[in-house]
Amino acid sequence: MGRIDSSRSLSGLEISSPEAFDKYFQDGIPQGTFSDASIKANLALAGDPKAFGDRLLAMSKKRLFGDVTLAMEFLARLLDYTGGQIPKEHIAPIIKALFDVGDELWSPDLWMPLPFGGYWDVARVIDRLLRRLSEPERFQALKSAISTGHALSTIAREVRGMKGQHGTGKVGSKQPEQARRLERDHQQDIEWIALQRIESAADGNGLFQCNDPVSLLYLWSEVAGEDEPRNWVARHIEDDRGLAAMLTAFLSYTVRYRSGDREPRRIPRVRPETLEDFLAVSDALIDRARGISAANWLTDLQRMAVNQFVKEYDALKSGKDPDHLVESEEE
C-alpha cells in the first residue's frame, strides 16, 4: 500500500482525502490498475455528486497509455461494483455526477481501442446503475441529473438512446415495454427538459462548445422537428468562423489497419450527405469553404475539416464515391 509520507499509510478510506489522492496513485498501485480498497475508497464519495464528480475530473487528468485516462480505467472497473456493492441511495448521486462531468471524461476525437471515444465507459455505468432502480426512481434520478447537469453531449446521447427504445428516434430500435428505461409519459418529460437545455445552449452560442454538438443537433431535430435546428444552423454559418465550427463538428474518422503498420491509421471524414440533415450543401457553400481554407485564424483541426469537406464534395460532384477516397488514402 502506498504512503503519503514516511509515517502515514493510506489505509481504510484515507484516499478520499484530497491530499491523499495524487500520492496514492503515484506510489500505491501499478499504473492502470485499481485495488478493491481503492475502488471502495473512491466510492466513499459517491453520496456527494460534487465530490464524486471532482474525483472523476481529477482522474481524467491522469493519462495512462495512449488516449486512456485513469477515469476511464476507474469506470471500467466500477462495472464490477454496480450489481450490489454500491448502496442504492448512492445511485442517483452517481448518475448526477456523470451527467455533470461526463463530457470531460470522454471525447469523440478519441479513437481505437476506445469505442465511441470513451463514452462507452460512462454509458455502461449509467445503464447498470439505472437497472437497479424502479421506473419512478429512474425517472426522478434522470430528471434531476438532466435538469442541472453540464455534460450536454452525454445528456443528448443518453436521451437519444432512450428515445430509440420507444421507436421514435433515429438511433436504437424499439424495445419491449419492460426493456425501456422510462414509460412514454416520463420519456417525453425527459426529452422536453433536454430540449430546453439544448435551446438554452444554442441561445448562448454554447452549443458548439460541447464535445459532441452533432448529438445535440440530432436530438433537437428529433424532439422539436427539423426546422428549429436547421434555422439555427443557417444563422450560425452566416459567419465564416461559424461555418468552420460547423464543419469541424461533423469531422469523424475512419480507422483502417494495414499489414506492417504499428498502429491503425485514422482517416478524416466530413460527409456532405450527413451535413444535409441540417443545412443545404451547395456550390455556394463549397465556394465559401474553399475561400476560408487558407485563413490564418483556422485551427489545425478546423483546416482539416474544411479541406476534407471540399474533397468529399468534389468527389461526389465528379460522380465518385467519397468512400473510395479512404481506399486511395491507404495506398
Keywords:
two-stranded antiparallel sheet, mainly alpha, globular, two-stranded antiparallel ribbon, 331 residues, 16 helices
β-strand percent reads 5-15%
Calculate Rg over CA atoms: 22 Å
Mean pLDDT: 85
Structural class: mainly alpha
Q: Let me know the number of strands.
A: 6
In terms of per-residue confidence, which ranges show pLDDT below 50 for 5 or more consecutive residues? 1-30, 111-116
Characterize the main sheet. 2 strands, antiparallel
Tell me the distance between the termini: 51 Å
Helical content stands at 40-55%
Give the overall silhouette.
globular
- What order do the strands of the largest sheet run in, or round the barrel if closed? 1-2
Separate helix tally: 16
The H/E string reads: EEHHHEEHHHHHHHHHEEHHHH
Question: Could you explain how this protein is built, in words?
Answer:
55% of the residues lie in helices and 6% in strands. The chain has 331 residues and is mainly alpha-helical. It has a domain of 95 residues. The strands form three sheets. A two-stranded antiparallel sheet has the order 1-2. The longest helix is centred in the middle third of the chain and has 20 residues. It is globular, with a radius of gyration of 22 Å. The termini are far apart. The N terminus is likely disordered.
